[in-house]
Amino acid sequence: MSKDHDYIIAGSGLAGLSLLYHLLNDDLLKTKNILVIDPLKKKENDRTWCFWEKHNGPFEPIVCHQWETLRFFAQDVSREFEMEKYRYKMIQSGDFYKLVLDLAETFPNVTFINEKISGIAEKGNRGSVKTDAGEYEAEYVFNSTGLFHPEMDEKNTLLQHFTGWYIKTEQPVFNSKIATLMDFRLNQQHGTTFMYVLPTKDTEALVEYTLFSPKTLTPKEYETELRRYIREDLQIEDYEITHSEFGVIPMSKARFKRYQGKYKRIINIGTAGGFTKPSSGYTFQFVQTHLEEVANRLKHNQSPAISPTLTDRKFLWYDLTLLDVLMTGSMTGEKIFSSLFKKVKPESILAFLANESTFWEEFKIRNAVPILPFVISGMKQILGGK
Ligand SMILES: Cc1cc2nc3c(=O)[nH]c(=O)nc-3n(C[C@H](O)[C@H](O)[C@H](O)COP(=O)(O)OP(=O)(O)OC[C@H]3O[C@@H](n4cnc5c(N)ncnc54)[C@H](O)[C@@H]3O)c2cc1C
Q1: I need a surface site. Which of 42, 202, 347, 356 has the fewest CB within 10 A?
Q2: In this predicted model, what pLDDT tens digit does every residue of 243-252 receive, in sequence order?
Q3: Is 271 in contact with 257 (CB distance < 8 Å)?
């Protein structure tokens, strides 16, 4: 096998395979010599991706369900709202891996190797990847492994952790047109705590118990709360658990670099490039926006090392401020989100969380929450405080 490539994709999860998909769907880039390295060849349905968008994205054919109506619940607010522009969408990772891997199989210029990467560096003005079995070079290395992750600890990072159950009932009990985005009517002793209820049929739904806190819980604790919620709040006695997923997403103030090296030959993508939103953990949509731009630049012979824009920096500051408020406990997640959902049009909140809000929407959002905790946390981010 040739060890020289145009591009090396280091890590073949969401970001690596999304990039591959973007490359293979472009007439010019699909002829490039591409090497994909990951010890795992993922096929399993190991995660469910939910996100919202205004238009159909590149993965629309594998969207397994979408909702136009969402619900939000907290102790003192309950809202059901129909979205005007956005659709809340769900993709199963198993369908995603299959779509991309099946497409890649039809390209002899794409090679997969199952090796663990021990180092990525620049060699002259090329990217070089070392594995336990060899060394590979390319014009660019696109990295989604954790090799360049900044240090994350309890001081700068909150964990978003969750267990989700796909449940199936005999009788129709769900409305598959309405999803619950957040139900905060739960014990908040561990930190920001809520349920998602995402029905895909009148007899099937994903129910996910989600927390933002410094530490994960024991498997039993997730299970107990899921069982209680399904029985007492959803009032469902008989159901079968058809699939279960557990996840931990870092919500971090640590600074992730978008690229590495003197010649910017190593491009960090996905979570590794800082595309996990620090205040919400959502990643899918931000990864796609970044990688579409990366592919577009490669196509035009431009460097794919994309620095954050002023708008990116503004939203990062909002994220770090919100995360700091949550971490210092100066306001709880439940209070923040219920203040927002009481006073602001839900579509504007979604636009804000998608980094797509207008100046006017941001003004209303700022006015909906008590000013002091946010000013203090916002100033800390400007002054570089932890
Ligand atoms: C269960 C779960 C559910 C989620 N749900 C959502 C959601 O609903 N919406 C949303 O927006 N986000 C969600 N996320 C967050 C985020 O979208 C995912 O974590 C996403 O998979 C991140 O993409 P990635 O490519 O950065 O990382 P991954 O998909 O984890 O891919 C990284 C890849 O790198 C490989 N790798 C690691 N180390 C090495 C090495 N040394 N050598 C070679 N390869 C290596 C890994 O094997 C892996 O395949 C979820 C996360 C989890 C865990």
Answers
A1: 202
A2: 999 999 999 9
A3: no
The predicted pLDDT at position 386 comes to 52
Q: Are 196 and 164 in contact (CB under 8 A)?
A: yes
Contacts of 370 (CB under 8 A, 6+ apart): 331, 339
DSSP 223-276: HHHHHHIIIIIS---S-EEEEEEEEEEEEE-SPPPSEESTT--EEE-GGGGT-S
**Burial class of residue 87 in the structure, from the number of CB atoms within 10 Å of its CB (0-12 exposed, 13-18 middle, 19+ buried):** middle
The verdict on the CB of residue 164 being under 6 Å from ligand 1 is no
From ligand 1's centre to the CA of 272, what distance in Å? 9
Q: Is 117 close to ligand 1, i.e. is its CB under 6 Å away?
A: yes
Is the pLDDT at 3 greater than 60? The verdict is no
Whether 55 has a pLDDT exceeding 50, the answer reads yes
Which of 295, 312, 313, 316 lies closest to 304, judged by CA? 295
- Is residue 192 within 8 Å of 334, Cβ to Cβ? yes
Pocket flag, ligand 1, residue 277 (CB < 6 Å):
no
DSSP conformation class of 149: P
Distances (CA, A) of 83 to 69, 71, 80: 6, 11, 10
CA separation for the pair 269, 141 (Å, rounded): 10
The predicted model scores a pTM of: 0.96
Which of the four pLDDT bands, split at 50, 70 and 90, describes residue 1? very low
CA of residue 361 to ligand 1 center, whole Å: 31
